[in-house]
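Can't attach files on this board, so I'm pasting raw text. These are the components:
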Amino acid sequence: MTAQKPPAGARPPVIQIRQVIKSYGHGDAVVHALRGPSAPGGGEPLGVSLDIAEGDYVAVMGSSGSGKSTLMNILGCLDVPTSGRYLLDGIDVGHLDEGQLSLVRNRKIGFVFQSFNLVPRTTALAQVELPLAYAGVRAAERRRRALAALSLVGLAERAGHKPNQLSGGQQQRVAVARALVTAPAMLLADEPTGNLDSHSTEEVLSIIDGLNAAGRTVVLITHEDEVARHAKRVIRLMDGAIVSDVRQAEVDGPPPALGVEVGV
Amino acid sequence: MLWQMLRFALGGLAANKVRSALTMLGVLIGVASVILLLAVGNGSSVAVKDSITALGTNSLTVSSTSARGAATAAKKLTVEDAKALATATDAPAIKSVAPVVTTTATALYGNISYQPGSVVGTYPAYFETANQKVARGDYFSNDDVLNSRKVAVLGSATAKQLFDTEDPVGKKIVLGSTPFTVVGVLQAKGSTGFNDPDDVVIAPLPTVQNAFTGFGSVNQILVQAGSAEQTTEAQNDVSRILLGTHAIADPAKADFRISSQSSLLTARESTTRTFTVLLGAVAAISLLVGGIGITNIMLVTVTERTKEIGIRKALGAPRAVVLGQFLMESTLLSVLGAGLGVLAGLIGSHFSIVGIKPVVIPESVLGAFGIAVAIGLFFGSYPANRAARLRPIDALRHE
Ligand SMILES: Nc1ncnc2c1ncn2[C@@H]1O[C@H](COP(=O)(O)OP(=O)(O)OP(=O)(O)O)[C@@H](O)[C@H]1O
Ligand SMILES: [Mg+2]
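---
Top answer:
Structure tokens for the assembled complex are below.
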């Protein structure tokens, strides 16, 4: 249920959520998107608690509507829980003001949305430059790093294309490039391969594996066991509560898929 | 060919550009109307001021007020009053005095019959006091007055009516039933709108009294002060002397009224000020409407782009940056609109509007421009703020 304790001497978990509940609506119509286990005797929901260690690679699975995206939005500081606490790097996010939150979103977190969410009428290059622009990086440097990120996802020659001129898979890869261009410590990806064929899926996953191997913490949501196989740890959600939490590989080791490839 | 190119260009100004252009038009109209309407108001006040100073700012008009109560029948103003004023030794501020009778009569020249606005009987001092100058011929003299000669000076409008292009000097006209010799024609002063100072026949006082009004009272006494600064002093002197000749102890019971051109000026000025304020209010409302147009468009823009705002915020755009982006758009709209409005207002002020030559008030240009830009900032900041305050997830979920 609770995450395994990281090996002794390692740094404290980068993500700690405590008794987090997220509900929508009021009264009888209330929906608990995140609720955790119920108190003994079928009482009030206790909320979801979860620790994620630095450098971990977590796949979140679960049926549609089980609360995966809700959890992810909270982890990405895009949404706030109805109750409970979220500590990022030991800091309670609930106590941060708007300015600090936008700094966290910009510097610490790379977010890949379930539905790409590219800025309309904007070229792929400008798209990827956006987080750097908000971080105050100078134009030449911005361009260099954005192009590097785009070529990492294999889209260097599509830099001048606008979203409506890109295929779904290409848009997804632009979104990945945009999430990793600031070299964030944490990559949060909501079904980054949901719209991709198996080939593109492997491409995107190998990029993510590489990032994790470089020490970044990765949390990704998926419906596919093939994708979950790449993670070091698999968490399953059902009706807003964690129902299983399986470790597939050591936090400090390489991502399992990368290891397999190396091994083969 | 040119038309074809123009059509392509217009086609290119599709969608949002049309919307922005219309918004800018709203601001443009607001700013232009502020500048123009205030210029019209100012223009009319300048015109009034000019025409009143043309009448002479250091002249005073004494007129009798109608009877106060049944017991004391008000004493009319008389030539003796005028003489008392003229001969007073202790009133240095009074420079000259001219009693005035006014009547109407039909003038005949040949087979042309015309009724001038007024027939005035007075002394030669009248001309200087009322700031009337002859263009042709000469004034009548004190000698003419003493001998009750039948001579007349015509206003330019009257001369035009009776003589058209002919030179009236030396010609004989018949006024009522009395023949008069025209000795001079006055310069045109221009109408102030209420009565035409050029439509007049001026003749020696006793001549007019003899022919028309009889030797009773006079309608007015025109007093000229030594200078514009001395009018108040002169007014006090006139009041004191006339209270003496009318044997009235209480100044509050005075049976005459002294008005100066400067008091007339103040009255007229306050009228035109009201006029200007009204025009300004209308203009300000249209400026406000332009501002509301900006708000409206910015709200639409923000609503349309809420999802984009969500993405930007999720990527770490600080609130100030989102705010700045939308404020910039609304400010650009208002600055461009206001700039064009200033241009339109300045161009428009070159044409005379309902007979008034607009006189642009420089402050109104700066003010209207400044206010328009401020309105853009102010009204644009509401939607911009709304956009910037959105929680990323709410913005992203926006449909
Ligand atoms: N804004 C909202 N208002 C009301 N209910 C919501 C809202 N957002 C999510 N929910 C509900 O919360 C629950 C969890 O939604 P969530 O988006 O987290 O599901 P998910 O696990 O990501 O599903 P999927 O795999 O289809 O993406 C769902 O039942 C959904 O209807
Ligand atoms: Mg989801």
